[in-house]
Amino acid sequence: MSVLDLVREDLRAFAGYASARREKATGHVWLNANESPWTSSADAGHGLNRYPEPQPQALRARLAELYGVSAERLMVTRGSDEGIDLLVRAFCRAGIDGVLIAPPCFGMYAVSARVQNAPLVEVPLIDDETRFSLDLTAIEDIIELGDVRAVFLCSPANPTGQALSLKEIRRLAKKATDRAVLVLDEAYVEFSSIGSARALLDEFPHLVILRTLSKAYAMAGARIGAVLGDPGVIGVLRSLQAPYPVPAPSAAIALAALSDAAQKESRERIATLVRERRALLKSLSGIDGVRRVYPSEGNFLLVRFDDPTAVFERLLKSGVVVRDMRAMPQLGDALRISVGTPEENATMIKALA
Ligand SMILES: Cc1ncc(COP(=O)(O)O)c(C=O)c1O
């Protein structure tokens, strides 16, 4: 069985929209896409009168190099949010094929499932009071039943902070073979000591990895993410994607953010954030009213408080905005605090203490 047999049957032969830019024409008088022949006076040299490349080649090649895969295994997306949505749409028949998540987790998996009317199957994380972990046996049992077509794992996980070992991912990937696509969201992997699971892509064609420039590369506003996976799966997702998903200015800025110099700067900043995260874990743990700080492999910390409402409001009064987690399952007393600059972190600690 091929991973493509897991794709919705009605989409298997679907080629998507044949945009003017997809046709491989060459020429110097472009009259094929009903564009304006002039650039706007507001155009800062991007040539925005023309539609952009559907998959900006230079950016795709650079991202492939950064993530250690060949370009045919990578699709550029509007943030990893778009990758999540496309995966659910490609693999889940509305009202039939389930999406498995392990809450508390990033909210977009459930949102995309809801939009596709894919039944949501929740296997709660286990909190042993020092860290959260996946209930691997329960997930395996549900995969075995055959009702879920997409399993979303996040490593490091938002908002709980733990990372998955290759052994855990391999175990679930084995179980999901011929049953479901296993999506590993690595939005925060640059902050983790465990590293990416991309080496498993060759072994498991039904494994898909999501990456993003939104976090470690400081490009959240540019909306650039990537799906890494089997070339056949990438082809299916491409056919579902909007005709021109990546705005030209975003592609150009993202490419610049991946220059050697900019990457060096990002690596230094990642190191600073990891140091700050360790320091914050210590200082938060010593503050009155803090019940527990979970260790984190991301650029944030999940913190339980005796009185989270009072803390949230006190921080707001000092102008410090953190993420309220109280509506999430198991997190009724928790706030998630992103790691900021050393000065921002000091301001937050002062407001708390
Ligand atoms: C785990 C996780 N995945 C994906 C995303 C979305 O990232 P992007 O900006 O690439 O769409 C987020 C954003 O916070 C996230 O926490």
Bound compounds, each kind once, are:
pyridoxal-5'-phosphate
The geometry reads as: globular
Give the H and E element order. Answer: HEHEHEEEHEHEEEHHHEEHEEH
Number of helices: 10
User: Strand order within the widest sheet?
Assistant: 1-9-8-7-6-2-3
Structural class: alpha/beta
Which spans of ≥5 residues are poorly predicted at pLDDT below 50?
none
Main β sheet profile: 7 strands, mixed
Q: Which bin fits the share of residues in helices?
A: 25-40%
Q: Which percent range describes the beta-strand content?
A: 15-25%
Number of strands: 13
Rg to the nearest angstrom?
22 Å
Average pLDDT taken over every residue: 97
Distance between the termini: 58 Å
Short description:
The chain is α/β, with parallel strands linked by helices and about 350 residues long. The chain has helices at about 55-65, 80-90, 110-115, 135-145, 165-175, 230-240, 250-255, 260-285, 310-315, 340-350, and strands at about 75, 100, 120, 125, 130-135, 150-155, 180-185, 205-210, 225-230, 290-295, 300-305, 325, 335-340.
How would you describe this protein?
The chain is of the alpha/beta class. Helix content is 34%, strand content 15%. The chain has 10 helices and 13 strands. It has helices at 57-67, 79-91, 108-115, 136-145, 166-176, 231-240, 248-257, 260-285, 308-317, 342-352, and strands at residues 74-77, 98-101, 120-122, 126-127, 132-133, 148-154, 181-185, 207-212, 225-228, 290-293, 300-305, 323-324, 334-338. The protein has a 7-stranded mixed beta sheet, with helices on both faces. A 4-stranded antiparallel beta sheet has the order 10-11-13-12. A two-stranded antiparallel ribbon has the order 4-5. Strand 10 (290-293) and strand 11 form a beta hairpin. Helix 2 (79-91) crosses helix 3 and helix 4 packs parallel to helix 5 (166-176). The mean pLDDT is 97. The chain binds pyridoxal-5'-phosphate.
